[in-house]
Amino acid sequence: MPTSASGPRHLGIIMDGNGRWAKKRSLPRTAGHVEGLKALKRVIIEAKEQGIEVVTFYTFSTENWKRSEQEVAYLMHLIVSKLHGELSFYNRHGIRIRARGDLQALPPEVRDAIARTEEATKDNSAITAVIAINYGGRDEICRAVGRALKKSGAQEVSEEEIGQNLDLPDLPVVDMIVRSADEQRLSNFLLWESAYAELAFYEKLWPDWGAEEIKAVCRDYRLRVRKFGGVE
Ligand code: FPP
Hints:
Order of helices and strands: EHHEHHEHEHHEEH
Oligomer: single chain
Structural class: alpha/beta
Bound molecules: farnesyl diphosphate
Strand order of the largest sheet: 3-4-2-1-5-6
């Protein structure tokens, strides 16, 4: 039975379990997010080693605004201080940073940190790390439909037009979506593209992820048989 010989080209990651990681250690939830960021760095380095072209990290969802004011403020602070603050790390490893989501609705200092980081890494070509921020799959589809209708002036929109008007249409479509911390749902992540993506769920909490977990993800992906609705 033929399986995927290589890949995935594009991996989507739902980073879950930061809060539980911190709780197990009687630490504040924010400590879990700090460790989660360290895991993100370990994962992107191994993803590059594995030949993955794009990793999309679910960093802040359109629903995450419901968290406590303090936690939202901390996550925004982490993004502002660490996103651009890790520039030498990205450049050392050839990592291009891009963002996906409704960026217009973010605080100006967050938008600014994103824009400066995207600009400063735009010539890096070893791997692309997409930060999905203020991101919701339903919201993205609504915005894509709106953009497509505005461009065409028509009253109907085709699947192809929606695909072409998603946030980063030049990237390869996501091949596999994985989630940490033993939860088995998509939680509004990459809904349009997940139609034919492989899905895999792992027990380990996100802050404990590193090279071994990404190697396992790649092994699991390469065992999958992708048919896209056809037959082998
Ligand atoms: C989910 O765990 C994690 C998040 C919502 C935040 C992820 C953010 C980071 C790892 C920091 C990223 C920073 C930059 C600069 C890109 P949870 O809090 O839902 O965990 P729980 O389910 O155990 O409570």
